[in-house]
Write a structure and sequence with these properties.
six-stranded mixed β-sheet, Rossmann fold, alpha+beta, binds adenosine-5'-diphosphate, binds magnesium ion
């Protein structure tokens, strides 16, 4: 679980920190705020940083139509994007990764990864039971056991390069790098989920795609049990559903179909399925899917394979309020850590007060235009209201415009 995230000089995020205090993020994180406050940018930032290790930044940029120079703050003279992520790996230990990405070179010029095992971690010869630190600076990577190596060419993070036990470092120490890849591989952004894209036929389908463009192929590739679970969950949202599956057509193109139980009902292909259902289908597909185990994933967490995080922008889009309520309840229960953004005060009403207190963050623009984050229900004006009304009403009553203006003055 990602418990703390900091980033500096990424688009509108300057010295940005979530949660922004000494506490930790929980399993559900909900970002609210005015248009242009920086909510989507926070999701992009988490996704971007994880791509440094598990993905291909050039591909990631081109899927958004961006260039590397779009990544840094406008008007900023700094080329580096500094970030830090802290993870709590259940039952295993704390993992902290700090880095500095040079937007001109397209790679991190400085990085540190540290692993501190929990005292309860049993020594089974797999995980290191003492702390491990990998440090990378001036082209040289070293660990605290004395291993060092000059680093040649790489893109993104240096931990892209030193991932295999064959790198020469102590095998146990390398597990720390493996853990970093393990937690980051789990980041799944559905932040550009677009019904237009989801309606398309697709091929391949390693995942749903950031815009949902490979939904059809992804659903096609689920295992029989996952398919069953996918349909069962979807049925909870749309009780009229009779079937929901993907079929393979000409040249292996997959198309998503549903049918509903009405008199004279026939099968509908994705081009005619409603937006809300498609979005929910993408969310469910992604949360029921278990990616196949790799390396020693089973050792890290025998029950939990597959994606660890889901990032969802504007979850309420295309859904009516009853469905949104079910989506929120569903997301509160999935095994993944979920980051959502929303404009809808309704969503807050579906959260218990204690959950709302812990998980809702207001994103706002500071005086200098950069984005800040603060726990929404700890703002005095809001906290006072929460004594008298539900989270959603407090959100409406306090008035985000006024609150935003007040915060940016302070
Ligand atoms: N490279 C950049 N540097 C500084 N600000 C940027 C950059 N790119 C975009 N922005 C600003 O970031 C703001 C936040 O946008 P966004 O995250 O989409 O807001 P939200 O999702 O809360 O509506 C936008 O108003 C935009 O002007
Ligand atoms: Mg947005």
């Amino acid at each position: 679980m990602l418990t703390n995230f900091k980033i500096d000089n990424f688009k509108s995020l300057t010295d940005f920190s979530l949660p922004g205090d000494e506490s930790s993020l929980g399993k559900f994180v909900c970002l609210i705020g005015l248009n242009g406050a920086g909510k989507s940018t926070v999701l992009q930032a988490v996704d971007f940083v994880s791509q440094l290790v598990i993905g291909d930044v050039s591909k990631w940029l081109s899927s958004r139509g961006w260039e590397r120079s779009d990544l840094v703050g406008k008007g900023s003279k700094k080329r580096n994007i500094n970030f830090s992520m802290h993870f709590l790996v259940e039952g295993i230990g704390d993992l902290t990764w700090v880095g500095s990405y040079n937007s001109q070179q397209g790679r991190c010029t400085k990085e540190e990864l540290s692993f501190v095992p929990f005292p309860s971690l049993k020594d089974d010869g797999f995980f290191p039971t003492r702390s491990v630190v990998f440090n990378f600076e001036s082209g040289v990577i070293r660990d605290n056991a004395g291993w060092r190596r000059d680093v040649g060419d790489y893109t993104g993070s240096v931990f892209n390069k030193f991932k295999a036990p064959s790198s020469g470092a102590n095998r146990n120490d390398v597990v720390a790098i493996y853990l970093l890849r393990y937690v980051l591989r789990g980041v799944k952004s559905l932040e550009l989920l677009s019904p237009q894209l989801m309606r398309r036929s697709s091929k391949g389908g390693g995942d749903v795609g950031v815009g949902g463009e490979t939904l059809a192929a992804f659903v096609y590739g689920l295992s029989p049990q996952e398919k069953e679970q996918f349909f069962e969950k979807l049925l909870e949202f749309y009780p009229r559903l009779d079937s929901a599956s993907s079929k393979s057509g000409k040249y292996g193109w997959k198309r998503f179909f549903i049918s509903e139980r009405y008199e004279n009902s026939t099968e509908l292909d994705a081009r005619h399925v409603n937006d809300g259902l498609l979005r929910i289908a993408a969310i469910i597909a992604q949360t029921v899917a278990k990616t196949p185990p790799r390396y020693d994933d089973a050792k890290v967490n025998p029950q939990q394979r597959g994606y660890q995080f889901v990032l969802l922008d504007e979850i309420e889009n295309g859904m009516n309020p009853e469905v949104v309520e079910r989506v929120v309840k569903y997301l509160l229960e999935v095994r993944q850590q979920v980051f959502v953004t929303t404009h809808s005060p309704l969503i807050l009403n579906y959260l218990a007060d204690d959950v709302a207190r812990k998980s809702v963050f207001l994103i706002y623009r500071r005086k200098d235009g950069s984005s800040g984050a603060t726990r929404f229900f700890e703002i005095k004006d809001v906290a006072d209201r929460l004594e008298l009304m539900g989270p959603g009403e407090a959100f409406l009553d306090v008035g985000l415009e006024r609150l935003g203006a007040k915060l940016s003055r302070s």
